Amino acid sequence: QNACEKKSFIFLRKELPVRLANIMKEIALLPKNLIGTNSVNQVNDWYLKSFEEVLEFEKTEPTHENLLVHIRNRHSDVVQTMAQGVLELKESQGGYVEPSLETSIQYFLDRLYMSRISIRMLINQHTILFGGNEESKGRHIGCLDPACDISSVVQDAYENARFLCDQYYLASPELVVREYNNLDDTLPVRTVYVPSHLYHMLFELFKNSMRAVMEQHDNATDNLPPIEVLIVRGKEDICVK
């Protein structure tokens, strides 16, 4: 709430080059037949271009919000493009990839996607706080909600996943939420979090769960077992199951 734009910018111009360089180094260590695909080359070019642009304003004042947004938007299709690169690799090898190579690729993808999330998080937080964005108003601090209501996000994700399930299967399982706050059982479970991140995770889990329920019960429309969600707050952490 008392954030300083200059300090935030100084942190970004030091941190972003490091994170971009780290992932570029990992891309360079990928198997040659994967690096050689058009899609992976495209991803590498995006990171190289962003790295060069970040270096350009390393010694400037904090007036480059548009450049940060441009860098963030450039990487919007990284997930799909990397997935296409893996498909291109499999096609070039007749659909078969050695288990050891597949494990190495999965390890790299996990690190790539975590790095991408962290970079987008840093850029979003800065641009929302200092870019005159309407999202920075209200109780939110940038993209963070200091009192994120877990149960409310669960309900939102369920309702949207249920809409898709109803459209496809003409029915959907109900939701049963149990919530336990061991710190104060009179209050709902709230925490400091990015609501959009939690929503996306829950939305995907609900879609998978609903599909499993519907297909396990032969697309029945009656007597479907509910999807159960357990939210527990302990002394040190929060668990959503």
Automatic annotation (TrEMBL):
<dbReference type="GO" id="GO:0005759">
    <property type="term" value="C:mitochondrial matrix"/>
</dbReference>
<keyword id="KW-0547">Nucleotide-binding</keyword>
<dbReference type="InterPro" id="IPR039028">
    <property type="entry name" value="BCKD/PDK"/>
</dbReference>
<keyword id="KW-0418">Kinase</keyword>
<dbReference type="GO" id="GO:0010906">
    <property type="term" value="P:regulation of glucose metabolic process"/>
</dbReference>
<dbReference type="GO" id="GO:0004740">
    <property type="term" value="F:pyruvate dehydrogenase (acetyl-transferring) kinase activity"/>
</dbReference>
<keyword id="KW-0496">Mitochondrion</keyword>
<dbReference type="InterPro" id="IPR018955">
    <property type="entry name" value="BCDHK/PDK_N"/>
</dbReference>
<dbReference type="InterPro" id="IPR036784">
    <property type="entry name" value="AK/P_DHK_N_sf"/>
</dbReference>
<protein>
    <recommendedName>
        <fullName>Protein-serine/threonine kinase</fullName>
        <ecNumber>2.7.11.-</ecNumber>
    </recommendedName>
</protein>
<dbReference type="Pfam" id="PF10436">
    <property type="entry name" value="BCDHK_Adom3"/>
</dbReference>
<feature type="domain" description="Branched-chain alpha-ketoacid dehydrogenase kinase/Pyruvate dehydrogenase kinase N-terminal">
    <location>
        <begin position="4"/>
        <end position="145"/>
    </location>
</feature>
<keyword id="KW-0067">ATP-binding</keyword>
<comment type="similarity">
    <text>Belongs to the PDK/BCKDK protein kinase family.</text>
</comment>
<dbReference type="GO" id="GO:0005524">
    <property type="term" value="F:ATP binding"/>
</dbReference>
<dbReference type="InterPro" id="IPR036890">
    <property type="entry name" value="HATPase_C_sf"/>
</dbReference>
<keyword id="KW-0808">Transferase</keyword>
